[in-house]
């Protein structure tokens, strides 16, 4: 019986994807792993060396889904918000996490400093956004505490 994906026994369709995702960090020391071997499932040819990493391979399935939704929405975070069923700040935070993981954004996004009244959203504005669904209760609690 031939097994799909084994050398010389047939081809695996590109859309099927791998059975397992390759780890991006070493399980022993935690350092980043590099790709050093590539192989052809059809003929068994192997190439060895140090290859450029795939910046998308380290993303989780949820992060890849977020990126697909963002691209399909042509970069419109309001559309991402609607598709994922989350508030705008949550959609923005998730997208920022993806950018950070890919090394495209700083890990510490500056937060607005607490200043005199009128510079940030008021308690009433925050509660109104929770009531409208624009903010989650956890996000509101964070804003009110900060």
Automatic annotation (TrEMBL):
Residues 26-57, 59-104 form the DUF2089 domain. Residues 13-23 have a biased composition (Basic and acidic residues). It holds the Pfam family Zn_ribbon_DUF2089. Coiled coil: none annotated. InterPro entries: DUF2089, DUF2089_Zn_ribbon. Residues 1-23, 102-128 are annotated as: Disordered. This is DUF2089 domain-containing protein.
